[in-house]
Amino acid sequence: QVQVVESGGGLVQAGGSLRLSCAASGSIIRINRMGWYRQAPGKQRELVARITSDDSTNYADSVKGRFTISRGNAKNTVYLQMNNLKPEDTAVYYCNADIYRLGPGRVDYWGQGTQVTVSL
After folding, report:
1. Residues 99-116: pLDDT tens digits?
2. What is the 3-state secondary structure (H, E, C) of the chain?
């Protein structure tokens, strides 16, 4: 089994910062890619940022220059540093892990989500 657990959401004023953390654990052979997605009420889930096993990153245009994705030393953790937050960043943020497991092969796993609310 694999678990993906996020933490770090909360309420912040516009212009403030938050840092999200995500850790994947369990029977993992290799983590190909980890990323953050978000879903606001009434909207589809969208990619925020992701990072590959060779530390290549990509970001949604709406967060470029404000958000930074990085991996921990253990390589099974990923962080999202969010600066200069805006009300439109309000959403549930989900961690995604693209994992290779012995048997099932390549599988996508999702965390339970963490709420980020940005007030004016």
Report:
1. 999 888 889 999 999 999
2. CEEEEEECCEEEECCCCEEEEEEEEECCCEEEEEEEEEECCCCCCEEEEEEECCCCEEECHHHCCCEEEEECCCCCEEEEEECCCCHHHCEEEEEEEEEEECCCEEEEEECCCEEEEEEC
